[in-house]
């Protein structure tokens, strides 16, 4: 159903006050112009700078009623039904006189069916007016409309460039349209134009730009961040079972399982020893599936004002759905769910909001929750069905340690074949991936100080100086391994 039909039904339900939160002012004005013609009523437009005027005002007509209270008294005294579109009226809703005048207009709707429409980027409706108000959302363009928009922009570019064709295949155009879903038509057109006009082509680099720009447009809370630096599975040493599991589900996540009635995978919980690659794995999932990575920072979620913490979470989850398909990485999830008795029940409400969203979400948002301390996690989160699987990320074995040394050496422009990776793996028994990385970094500092090149011997020297977490916290890690043995799937 079109916006016009939806709006007509709303008006016919005798709703006197309509609130619209949108930046698409021109589109809303055009829509209400169509509505006024359907109703056979005049459309009156008001702004604080232009006063009250008709849409088709002639140059000799003078705008009037610029003051909000004067405007509302004029509407209250009008005996001709009209549609009044008030632009950016939200600051004046804090004045009790204005609120009272609007109530009187609403209460006289049966006698004179005027319609007041508040159009602003953001509107807080006073409680006194809530019973007379209906919110209306302008629909966003779907994928077919976005495909048509992209083709129109491409045709414009061709006409301006002597008929040269835009370089793009059908798959690239489809991916661009999918990444524009969730934006207004004007924002989508602007990003499509930026992608095409930059070089006359639609490429993977354009998709990255669109994803980041889209996030900047829709993100409101500062607790959700767009992670530009994703990783590939080649950057992760080991975790063979996790990699295989993810590879098998990639096509289904992108809609490839519809013929068999398969839904997109929900997500995974990554439990394990600190520093063993859980965060890197979250980044690698986004890289493997070629989707945006959003990171939810639970430490920034909490707010001292009542209800603000829950609102922050809801806004973040709404943003993730608009960015879908995407990976939502909830890092160290236990920090936000282990508040206990002293937080006024906030952590319980946060858990409830998160669990409800996870069970009801329909968009392809793949949740990757990581945790270092399983004892702090509520049992409701770990029960079967919340996540598709719970993986345990253990300390790397001998083979994996060798792979990690090779990856870390390559990252620092060294040739792994020049090192005895097997010997390094044997000497680093009990080391996490993070500790192996620090050993490599420390050996480079030592080599630079001595004026020599890094060698296997220097690396072994640094390894021997290190007391890994598996030694410092041996009892806790042993307990965690024992707990995970029968309750989780080994990631490696």
Question: What order do the helices and strands come in, and which of them pair?
Answer:
Layout: H1 3-12, E1 17-21, H2 25-39, E2 43-47, E3 51-54, H3 68-77, E4 83-87, H4 96-107, E5 115-120, H5 127-130, E6 133-135, H6 143-160, H7 170-180, H8 185-199, H9 204-218, E7 224-227, H10 240-253, E8 267-272, H11 278-289, E9 293-296, H12 308-323, E10 326-330, H13 334-337, H14 346-360, E11 365-371, H15 379-382, E12 389-393, H16 398-411, H17 421-427, H18 433-450, H19 456-465, H20 469-472, H21 474-485, E13 489-490
Parallel strand pairs: 1-5, 1-6, 2-4, 4-5, 8-11, 8-12, 9-10, 10-11, 12-13
Antiparallel strand pairs: 2-3, 7-9
Helix pairs in contact: 1-2, 3-4, 6-7, 6-8, 7-9, 8-9, 12-14, 16-17, 16-18, 17-19, 18-19
Domain AAA+ ATPase: 264-397
Family: Belongs to the AAA ATPase family. Highly divergent.
Keywords: ATP-binding, Nucleotide-binding
